Amino acid sequence: MAPRKNSRNQSKKEVKPAAMVNKNGVKAEAATASGGGGVASGGGGVASGGGGAASGFSGTKIFTWFMVLALLGVWSSVAVVWLDLVDYDNVIGKLSAYDADGDGDFDVEDAKVLLGLTKEGGEITNENADSLEEIFGILAEEGSDWFHGFFTFLYDVISPPVEKVEDPESETAEEEGDADEKEVKTAAPKKETLKKAENIVEVPVPKPEKTKGSLLFNGDQSPGEVTSKKNRTKGVKERPVSLVQKEAKEESAVEEQTEPIVKEVIQTTEGTEEEGQLPLNPSQEQQAPEGNAEDQPADMLKYKAKKKKPKLLNTFEKTIKAEIDAAEKLRKKGKVEEAVRAFDTLVQQYPQSPRCRYGKALAEDDLAEKMRSNDMLQKALSTYKEASELPNATPDLIKATLKKRAERQQFLGRMRGALATLEKLVQIFPEDMALKNDLGVAHLLIGDNKSAKRVYEEVLAIAPSNGFAKVHYGFILKSENMIAESIPFLRDGLESGDPGTDDGRFYFHLGDALQRMGDDSAYKWYERGHQRGHFASVWQRSLYNVDGLKAQPWWTPKDTGYMDLIKTLERNWRTIRDEALSVMDKTTGLFVPEEENLREKGEWGQFTLWQQGKKAGESCHSVPKTCGLLERYPEATGCKRGQIKFSVMQPGTHVWPHTGPTNCRLRMHLGLVIPKTGCKIRCTNDTRAWEEGKVLIFDDSFEHEVWQDADSYRLIFIVDVWHPELTQYQRQTLSPI
User: Fold this and answer.
1) Do 425 and 435 meet the contact criterion of CB atoms below 8 Å apart?
2) Nearest Cα to 367, choosing from 331, 403, 400?
C-alpha cells in the first residue's frame, strides 16, 4: 500500500478541472497540484492487471464496488453519528476539493467517479487511487487508528498496483539488486502552471533532472521572470500564443564566475545588443528520448528507456544496508537535518564507506537548499569529492557523485571547477558519450568554443547519430559564421528528438541560418518551435521573458503611457541631433561598428549612453544636453534590459531579420537625419519609415528587419524603456540583459 499522505500539507487536487479563460482569451484547464492528476473525463484508464484499457465492468465487479460503497457508507455513519469519531463539518469541508460532479460537495456520486462506476470515472487509474488515498487519509485524520485501518483495507482492495520508478541516485533498495535491464515506460511531463510573484506563471516543459539552481541562494532571482510567453498578441495574425520553456540562465553566486557564457549572438534590433550571453543548459543530464520533435507534441510524448540499476553499494556496504536505508529514508521524507546527523554518524562509524559519505553529501545538499546557504552547499561539494576518492567506491557511485558535484559547481558559478570535474569523469569513463556531451557544454559555459567543438567532433566520430552533439556542433559552426555548414547539424539534431535537443535556442538558430540562406523553411522551424512551447509565436521569438505582458509589434505613444518622455524627445529632437552630429566624426572613435553579425552588408555604427541601466559617464560628457534631458525618465535610464544610444547607418546596409532577447522592453526610434527615400524598417509583416523629429515605437522581441538603400546616411536615437505592464518590483529585481 502506498504511504498515507498528509492532506494538510499538500495542495488539493481537482478531480475534474474546470475550464477557464486566461487573460489571452485562451481556454486553459485549471492546473492540478504537483502531486499530480485528476480523473480524466472519458476514463479508459489502464486496468489494474497492467493489460489493455478496460472495456466495461462485469457483474461481479459491479457487485464488488456496490459492497465497497455500502461498507463505506455504513462505517462512515457509525463513525460520525454513533461514535462521534469525526468532526463532520471539518471533514466535509476538506472533501469538497474532490468534488467530481460540480455540485459543490463530496458525495456518493463523486465516490462513484473515483471508483470508476460512471462514464466520467471510467476504469480505476493510478490517479484515481491517489485521490482516494488522500480522501481516506482525511477521514482517518479525524478518527482513530482502527478507523484508519478500515479505510486502509478498503484502499488496498480498490487500488491498482502502482508502477514505481526508483531514484537511481539514492534508492539503496535498488543498489544491490541484479543488473538486469528493466524497461520503463514514462509519459513526458505535463505542463503545469506555477504561481510566481505578481501572478506571473511559469510553465515548465520536459527538462533535465531537478537542480537546486532555481533557488538561487545568492538572492539574485528575478521575481516574475520566466521564459513562457502567454502574451496578448495584437496586430499579427497568429494562433493563440503558446507556453514556453523555462529560462536556463544560471546566476553566479560567487566571485569565481569567470567569462561570459557562450560566445553567441543575442539577436536584437538595431545594433549593439550584446554578444553571446545565452547559456546552454548547465545541467545536461541525458534524458530518455522524447521521440521525433517533428511529429509528436510535447504533452503526448512517451519513451522507453532501458537502464541498468546503479550499483552504489560495495560488498561491505551491503552488510550495513539497513542502516543506510534508515538514514536515506529520513532524507526522502524531507527531514534533512536528521538525515545529515544520521549520515554523519554512519561516516564516523564507517569512515571508509563511499555510500555513507555520498548519502551525507546528498543530505547536506538538501539542507543547503532548505537553508538557502552557499556555505552548506560548499560543504556538500567537499563531501561529494571525498566520497568519489574513497577506495572501493563502485563505478556507478563515482559517476553519480562527480556528476552531482559538477552540477552544483556550475550552480555556484564555478565553471572552471565544474570543467575540471567533468574532465575527470570523462577520463574515468571514456566510453560514456553523455559525459563527453556534458564536457562540451562546460567548455561553452566558459566561452571556450574551440575546445567544445573538438569534444563534439570526437563524439560524432564515435556516435555520428548523436543528436545532442549535432545541435551543439551546429550551434558552434553558426557562431563561427559557417551558416550553411551549421544547418544540417542543427536540423538533424532537432529531428533526432534526442534528450537535450528540444531547446528554443536551437530552433532559433536553425531558423536564423535558413533565413540567411534565403530558405523559407525557416518559418516551418519557427512554427515547430512555437508548437513545442519555445516561442510565443512564429514572429515573437525572444527567450528571456515575463509572462502575461501585452504583446503587439507596433505601439502608439498613448499605448505606452510614456507620453511625457515621448514629447520631450520630439520637442528637443534638434538639440539631440546637433549633439549627435558633433560626435559623429570618425576620428573621435565614439561610434563603434556593430559587431554581432546582424548585417548582411553595409556599415552600421553606434554610440551608447546607457547600457543595462548604467550610465556611460564619459559618453555623456560628449552629449551633456541629451543626457540631461533623459535623467528624469527612469523608465528609460533604469531599463536594465535595454540601451540608450545613437545609431548611424550608411547607404547599402541591410540588417538580417532578427529578434531581441526579451519581451520586457519596448524600443523607441527618434528620427534625427532621415533621407527622403530608401530607409525602412519591417516589424512582423508591417513595414514603416522614420520621420525626422518623430518617434517610432515597436516591440523588438518580434522579428524585424532594416534596409538602408538611400544615397546618404541615416541617423536615429534609440531609447529602450521598460514594458509598461511590468511592476516596480519587477523592474528593480529583473536581471540585466
Assistant:
1) yes
2) 331
Cα dihedral 626, 631, 634, 640 sign: positive
Alpha carbon 519 to chain centroid distance? 30
CA distance 425 to 92: 56
Q: What single string gives the DSSP state of each residue in 95-106?
A: HGGG-SSSSSS-
Phi and psi of 40, rounded to 5°? Answer: -75, 125
Cβ atoms of residues 101 and 23 within 8 Å: no
Using alpha carbons, select from 565, 544, 537, 548 the residue that is nearest to residue 697.
565
How many angstroms separate the CA atoms of 706 and 33, rounded? Answer: 47
**Per-residue confidence (pLDDT) for residue 175, from 0 to 100:** 46
Q: What is the pTM of this model?
A: 0.63
pLDDT tens-digit series, residues 18-35: 444 343 333 333 333 333
Could you give the 3-state DSSP secondary structure of residue 350? Answer: coil
Rounded to whole angstroms, how far apart are CA atoms 467 and 134? 42
Distances (CA, A) of 285 to 85, 424, 439, 442, 511: 50, 17, 11, 12, 26
654, with CB counted inside 10 A (0-12, 13-18, 19+), is middle
CA-to-CA distance for 534 and 246, rounded, in angstroms? 9
Half-sphere exposure of 668 (CA within 13 A, CB side): 28
Q: pLDDT at position 63, please?
A: 57
Of 313, 375, 306, 377, nearest to 350 by C-alpha is 313
Q: How far is CA 447 from CA 170, 286, 594, 661, in A?
A: 34, 22, 20, 19
Which set of grid coordinates corresponds to residue 80?
Answer: 460520525
Model confidence pLDDT, tens digit, residues 523-539: 999 999 999 999 999 99
d(CA 400, CA 397): 5
Interacting residues of 593 by C-beta distance below 8 A, sequence separation 6+? 603, 604, 605
How far apart CA 149 and CA 160 sit, in angstroms, is: 18
Predicted confidence at residue 590, as pLDDT, reads 77
- Counting other chains too, the contacts that 485-489 makes at CB distance below 8 Å and 24 or more residues apart are 486/513, 487/513, 487/514, 487/517
Q: Could you give the 3-state DSSP secondary structure of residue 73?
A: helix
DSSP secondary structure code for residue 644 in this structure: E
Could you tell me whether strands 232-233 and 550-551 are parallel, antiparallel, or unpaired per DSSP bridges? parallel
Lookup: cell for 533: 512551447
> By mean pLDDT, which of 170-174, 372-376, 398-402, 718-722 is the weakest?
170-174
How confident is the model over 383-414, as pLDDT tens digits?
A: 999 999 999 999 999 999 999 999 999 999 99
Please list, in sequence order, all residues whose beta carbon lies within 8 angstroms of the beta carbon of residue 536, skipping any fewer than 6 positions away: 229, 230, 231, 233, 241, 242, 244, 530, 542, 545, 551, 663, 701
